[in-house]
Amino acid sequence: MEMTYIFLLITLIGAVLHLLLSKSPKTKNRVFEVFSLWFLFIMVGIGSIWAFVGHVFLSNTIAAMIGWPAGNPFQLEVGVANLSYGLLGILCLKFRDNFWLATIIAVSVFYLGAAYIHITDIMQTGNIAPGNAGFALYIDVLIPIILICLFTAYKLTMESEQPKSS
User: Fold this and answer.
1) Minimal CA–CA distance to 139: which of 103, 111, 107, 102?
2) pLDDT digits (tens, 9 = 90+) for 54-80
3) Rounded distance, CA 24 to CA 63, Å?
4) Angle CA 28–30–35, to nearest 5
5) Is residue 133 within 8 Å of residue 122, measured between CB atoms?
6) Whole-model pTM above 0.85?
7) What is the spatial distance between Cα 46 and Cα 147, in angstroms, rounded to a whole number?
8) Which alpha helices (H) appear in 23-162, and where do they start and end?
């Protein structure tokens, strides 16, 4: 869970430095593009690869952190799902537009679905383990909201900042 804080910090610092060091004009569209890119690459790409490693290679530790039983095959399934989102996030460096949109939809469905499962677990069992409640739960909700807002702003400002043809 501490790594999520680090990934978030890297994302924000990386995006700001990217903008400061870039020679491209710092339009609203460019700001939304750069922040979208960094959130997709670090929070989704690197973060999901990190989650893959945890769920697959440290499955008993992660299960205990979530408050779920160890040795359940769900860990491998969740790990492989995280690997797929991680690869999508990394590929966002190369591919844009509709690829970004597809990546955001996929990871948002997964994160919001996970949030629903965690909330249900909290309500039904009172499981408030650190990996089931608190920051982990907030991230499952906030990352999709941030990604959707950034991408929407990126697309809207792209249209509004394009020169009007006469």
Assistant:
1) 111
2) 999 999 999 998 988 888 888 899 999
3) 45
4) 100
5) yes
6) yes
7) 15
8) 28-38, 47-57, 59-66, 74-91, 98-125, 135-161
